[in-house]
C-alpha cells in the first residue's frame, strides 16, 4: 500500500491518526523502538510486536558500516533480514555522524568521516543516504541533515540549517528519481533554539514538499523548557495534513507534552537503555530496581498492567536479576519499558478520540508524582 496519513481526531493541538505504509498501518501518536543495528537490543521481533509497536527505527550510519546496505539488500531487505514484517523508518545518519564519528569534515557535497568501529574513511552525501535507505527497504526514509549540539552561536545554527535545506532538495530529487514504490521521504526541520530559523526551515521544507516533517536537532543539550518552546514555535509552520515527528525524544513526560503540542511520532533509546541499567518505567514513574528496598518486595511492578512481564514478575526477582547482572533482567526490563511507552501512546490515542486529552495528561502526571523515585 502507498504511504498516506489521515487524521482521526483532534483535541486542542493533540492529534490521533493513522499512517499507512507498504508494511502496514501505524497508529499515531506512535513511539518507535530503536533498532539501530537491525535489532532492538536483547529482544526478539515478536516480543517487540507484543509490546504494541507498529513501527521500528533503523539507522543508515550503523547499517552502512556493518553489515552494509548492499548486503542487506541482497538478503531481501531490512524487513526480511531482521524478521520484522511491519513498518520501518530509517534515520539518515546525520546525528550519528555528529555524535560517533571521528575526524568528520562537512563539505557542501557530503560529510566525510572515519568510522567509530575501525577508523575507515567514508563519505555520506544526501544522495547516498537516500540510496542506502532504499537498499534497506525503509517504508519511511529521512533526508540527510547536519545536526549540531546546543547551545551554539546563531551564525553556526543558521549555517547548518541552510546546508540542511540544500541537502533536503538533493534528497528529494534523488528519492523522486527512484521507481515509485509507495514509500515516503521526510524532511527535517533544523534551526537550533532560534524560533525564526525554525520557522524559516519548516516553510522552505514545505515548499520542497515531503510526505512528512520531522523536528531534528533537539535533545542535544538544551533544557526541557527550551525544547518545548521550540516545538511551540515550529509546529504551526508544519502542515496539518502530514505526520509530525520529534526525533530522539524522550522521557514519558516529553512524549505527553509534545503530543499536547501537536506531535505524532517519536523515537528514543531511553526505554531500552534504562532497562539495561535496572530502571523500569511504569505508570507510577520510574523504579530503580538496583535499590535494596526491592530485595524483599513480592509485588509486581504493576499488578493491573496488560503486559505479562510487568504484571507477573516480583520486584524482588527483578532486583535479583539486576544485582546479579543476569541478562534476563535487561531483557525483561527492556520489554517492560517498551510496553509502558506503547501503553502511554495508546492511552493518548484513546483520550484524544474521546476529547479528554487534558484530563488524561493531568491524571498521568499525577500518578508519576506518586512514584518511588523523583520525577525526571
Description:
The protein is of the alpha/beta class. It has two domains: 265 residues, TIM Barrel; 95 residues, no CATH class. 42% of the residues lie in helices and 20% in strands. It has an eight-stranded parallel sheet with strand order 4-14-13-12-11-10-6-5. The chain has a three-stranded antiparallel sheet with strand order 1-2-3. A three-stranded antiparallel sheet has the order 7-8-9. Helix 6 crosses helix 7, helix 8 crosses helix 9 and helix 11 packs antiparallel against helix 14. The longest helix has 27 residues. The C terminus is likely disordered.
For the largest beta sheet, what order do the strands appear in spatially? Answer: 4-14-13-12-11-10-6-5
User: Could you name the CATH class of the largest domain?
Assistant: Alpha Beta
For the CA atoms, what is the radius of gyration? Answer: 20 Å
CATH superfamily of the largest domain: Queuine tRNA-ribosyltransferase-like
What is the residue-mean pLDDT, rounded to a whole number? 95
Helical fraction: 40-55%
CATH topology tier name of the largest domain: TIM Barrel
Structural class: alpha/beta
Amino acid at each position: 500500500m502507498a504511504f498516506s496519513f489521515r487524521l482521526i481526531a483532534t483535541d486542542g493541538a493533540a492529534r490521533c491518526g493513522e499512517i499507512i505504509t507498504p508494511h502496514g498501518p501505524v497508529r499515531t501518536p506512535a513511539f518507535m523502538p530503536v533498532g539501530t543495528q537491525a535489532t532492538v537490543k536483547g529482544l526478539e521481533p515478536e516480543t517487540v510486536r507484543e509490546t504494541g509497536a507498529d513501527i521500528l527505527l533503523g539507522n543508515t550510519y550503523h547499517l552502512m558500516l556493518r553489515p552494509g546496505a548492499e548486503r542487506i539488500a541482497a538478503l531481501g531487505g531490512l524487513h526480511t533480514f531482521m524478521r520484522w514484517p511491519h513498518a520501518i523508518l530509517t534515520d539518515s545518519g546525520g546525528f550519528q555522524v555528529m555524535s560517533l564519528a571521528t575526524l568528520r569534515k562537512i563539505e557542501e557535497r557530503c560529510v566525510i568521516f572515519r568510522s567509530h568501529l575501525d577508523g575507515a574513511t567514508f563519505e555520506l552525501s544526501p544522495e547516498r543516504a537516500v540510496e542506502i535507505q532504499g537498499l534497506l527497504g525503509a517504508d519511511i526514509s529521512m533526508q540527510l541533515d547536519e545536526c549540531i549540539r546546543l547551545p551554539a552561536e546563531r551564525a553556526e545554527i543558521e549555517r547548518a540549517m541552510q546546508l540542511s535545506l540544500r541537502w533536503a532538495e538533493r534528497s528529494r530529487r534523488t528519492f523522486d528519481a527512484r521507481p515509485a514504490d509507495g514509500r515516503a521521504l521526510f524532511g527535517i526541520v533544523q534551526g537550533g533554539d532560534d524560533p525564526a530559523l525554525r520557522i524559516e526551515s519548516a516553510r522552505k521544507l514545505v515548499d520542497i514538499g515531503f510526505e512528512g516533517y520531522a523536528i531534528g536537532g533537539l535533545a542535544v543539550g538544551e533544557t526541557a523548557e527550551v525544547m518545548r518552546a521550540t516545538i511551540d514555535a515550529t509546529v504551526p509552520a508544519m502542515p496539518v495534513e502530514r505526520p509530525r515527528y520529534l526525533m530522539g525524544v524522550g522521557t514519558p513526560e516529553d512524549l505527553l507534552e509534545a503530543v499536547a503540542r501537536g506531535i505524532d511520532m517519536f523515537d528514543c533509546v531511553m526505554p531500552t537503555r534504562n532497562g539495561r541499567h535496572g530502571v523500569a518505567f511504569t505508570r507510577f514513574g520510574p523504579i530503580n530496581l538496583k535499590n535494596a528496598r526491592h530485595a524483599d518486595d513480592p509485588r509486581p511492578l504493576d499488578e493491573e498492567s496488560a503486559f505479562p512481564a510487568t504484571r507477573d514478575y516480583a520486584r524482588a526477582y527483578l532486583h535479583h536479576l539486576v544485582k546479579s547482572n543476569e541478562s534476563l533482567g535487561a531483557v525483561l526490563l527492556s520489554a517492560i519499558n517498551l510496553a509502558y511507552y506503547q501503553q502511554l501512546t495508546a492511552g493518548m490515542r484513546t483520550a484524544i478520540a474521546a476529547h479528554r486529552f487534558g484530563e488524561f495528561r493531568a491524571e498521568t502526571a499525577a500518578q508519576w508524582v506518586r512514584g518511588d523515585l523523583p520525577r525526571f
